[in-house]
Each structure stands twice: as structure tokens, then as C-alpha cells.
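Page 47, continued from p. 46.
Same chain as before, 528 aa.
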Amino acid sequence: MKLPRRKAEVSLDDRLEALAEAADLAEGRLGQEAVDHCRGVVARAGARRGLSVEHTAVALAGATGSGKSSLFNALSGTELATVGVTRPTTAKAQAALWGPDGSGALLDWLDVPLRHRVEGDASGLILLDLPDHDSIELSHRREVDRLVAAVDLLVWVLDPQKYADAAVHERYLGPLARHRDVMVVVLNQVDRLPERSVKRCLDDLRGLLAADGLEGVPVLGVSARTGEGVPELRALLDRQVSLRRAWSSRLAADVASAASALWADTPPAPGQAAVPEVAVNRALTRALAQAAGVPAAVEAVAKSHRHRSIAATGWPVTRWLRRLRPDPLRRLHLAKGARSSLPAATVVEVSAVDTALRDVGAAASASVPEPWATAVRHAARSRSEELKDALDRTVAAATSGRVSSAPRWWRVAGTAQWLTVAAMAAGAIWLLVRFALDYLMLPGLPTPTVGRAPWPTVLLLGGALAGVLIAALCRVFAWAGGRRRARRAAKALRAGIEQVAGELIIAPTRDELSRYTRFADRVAVAAS
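Result:
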């Protein structure tokens, strides 16, 4: 998998830090094996950096009969390794040391108990003879796998009969394609080939290595028995050791390989991860509003305003009847911001919310590869259980303030209504007094008129008519005020619903997208 390139070189410390963070971000999203492998690489790198950097651990790895142990003896100028032909003879790795001072902790970490000091220049070379990677003994293969993952420089010893063996190419060489800078391939036993066949075999081997992604890896033909090519191999190792960089190159390759393994689980998708589109969010808000009973709450606000308006400005003779009816907001327990008694969402409304949540998850995950896309979709629904209570509280809070204040015109209209009642009372009392005086045959009171209508009658009937007209006019104003308050309530409810959607749905989705974006950046840094 091709990884993103970064313009500037990044230090090994930064790359290790990036890989560790990428592994943490991938926890629960990617395969646990890849995550654990990254953490193992980081832990191994931390341990290796704390050990001697003046020494370079070089491992000779190969199959049974490849002449690996013979080459070990030839390079060390000793007979330390027992040589076999048809069966494994190396059971535990052993080390030949040139300049052993300070190498003890490194060999302890590598868990190599068999150590031999070799006379010569104190170059810092630690040459390891590994068991055979194709041994019939499982413990031998595990020992090879452990040390192949830990040493600084790898020398693969192949022989003319098995250099194309799929086992070594598929299990080791191919997976180590990023380690070309810390790898050498040796074709041993070239003395068994006709001279004209040596070049052909070496060229064929280079072609196989190129197919493994190891193009450019040094390939040498040697013969441990005759010594052909051994000085060249030793010189190559000495050059690598003298640079004192093999350990850091190995760790850098490990980090890049681990980052590549993460991308193998989740290849980068084209485009940038983005939050859901506005249209999707609007559809979500509408679905939540319907499920939360916002239309019923808005209607209750309008009816409550009309109810209270009529109770405050209606004809005093009949307005007491209005007080017998419950306030619509109080009936739904919305007046004080408490838990409401709005009707439960219908099956259709619940289904609409589920569809909106799926749409949000689908829109957000469109530019994110699996399995991160699944995590994004899950994030969009991760707090859906909290929606019902949050929406109920939002509706109650947004509507509770709608009964807190009374318009000034209510007091004016109420005063006018009481004046009409006073006029009616005055006219009625005046008429009663006149009736009583006439009944008692007492002198009557002077009765002014308006045209031909006596004032008591005008006051009584006019007050009643004026009260009814004022009440009717107030109903018109109450209806208009109710609609106005309903619009304000709808706006406040919409803002509250959007806030709930943002906190419980959009924010978790955006957090997961940000997590993926950060993960992609960290992997790119680690792989640089």
C-alpha cells in the first residue's frame, strides 16, 4: 500500500511518537493485531535506543543446508558454529563479538546467552548465527522470528538449490520490503556451480528480490568453503558497522512497515473527511422536531396566549367562564419548564428519526474508508438513547417563558372593560331607583336623555354593547399575538433542537471524523 509522502524529513523520535498515537487512535477501529504490532514496534524501539549504539547486531539467517553456520565460521575466523548438511544443528543463536565492551546489555535484550569474543579490531560488530528458519523444531523457528524482528542488520544466506523457495520469500523477504537499507542477501555455495551459471543465478535472484520489493538490496555470491566473496561480505559489514546507523535505519523501517500495516487495514480514501451537509442536518432537525412534539408545543403557546388574553380582556360578565378552562401550556406541563406531557412520538416519527440518523452517518462516512466509516456511522447514533429526555427538556425550557409576561394592552383593555361594567351598573342602579320611586309614588328624579333615549338605558345597554365589542376586538389582537408568540416559540424550539442535534449527534460524528483525520496524519508522519 502506497503511503502519503511528506515534504520534509521527520526525525525517528517524531515518527515513533506518531506511530504510538496512531495506534491509540486506531484502538477499537482497526484489527487488534495491527494495533498491537505498532505498540510492539514502539516498545522495541524505545528499548533499543537505550542500549549501545556503538554496536551493530548482524544476524545470519537462512534455511537448513544453506551453509549459514559455515559462513559464520568463515567471517569470524573460528570454528564456533557446528556445521551440518541435512539437518538443523543450530538450536540457539550464538554471537561472535568484535569489541565486546558495552555490548552486554544489548545481548541480554536480544537474549543471546552464547557469546564469543573474537580477536581483531574493536569494530563493534556483533555477528549472530541463527537457527534455521525452516527447522522442523518449532522452537527454532520462533527463535528466528524473534531475532529477525530485533537485530539491526539482516544477512539472508541462500543456496543455489533453494534461493527461489517460496517459504523464505513469502514469509520473510517480501514482508521485509521496507527493510532494504538494513538487509544483505548472500548466495552461498557458488563453488558448486559452473562459473557461467553463477552470474545467471545471481541475476535471477535479483529479479526475485525485485518482485519482493527489495530492488537494490546488495546481493553477493560467496563460498564459505573456499572463501570466495567472504572478504567482500566482511568489508560490507564493516562499512555498515562503522556508520553506526544500522540500528536507527532498522527502527525507521520497522515504523514505516507498521504504519503500512495500519493502512493495509484502512486504505486512505480520496477527498477529505467532512461533517454532514446542511441539507442532511435540516432533515435531522425536522425529524427531531416532529418526534419531540414541537408542532403541538407551538400550537399550545398560541392557544395559551389567546386563553390568557381572553381571561384578562374578555367581557367581565362572562370572563369567569374562561378561568374554568385549563391553560393549554399548563395542561402539557410546559409552563414551568418541567417534564412535559406531550404525546409520545408515533411509529412514523420514530422511523423518520432513525432514517435521519442513518443519513447523517452515511453523509459523514462517505469519504472515510472502512472500518472507520462504520465507526463514524456508530458515532452518529452513539447517544441516540439520550435524545428523548434532551428533546423533552428543550421543549419545556423553550416554551416555559412564553407565559411569563403580559402585554400592556391587556391592562388597558381590562380597565376599559371594567369601565363598561361600571357604566352598566350605574345605568342599572339608576333605573332601579326610578322604578322604586315610581312604585312608592314618590317624586321622580330628572332623567336626561340622549336624543329620545334616557341616560340610564344608554348606560346599561351601551355598556353591555361596548363590553362585547371590546371583547371581540381583543380576541382579534389575542389571535395575532398568539401567532406572533408561536412564531417566536417555534424559532426558539428550532434553535434548541439544533443544539441538541449538535451535541448528541453532530458533535460525536465530528469527533470521530477528527479522530480519523488525526490518525491519517499520524500514519503519514510515521511512514515518512
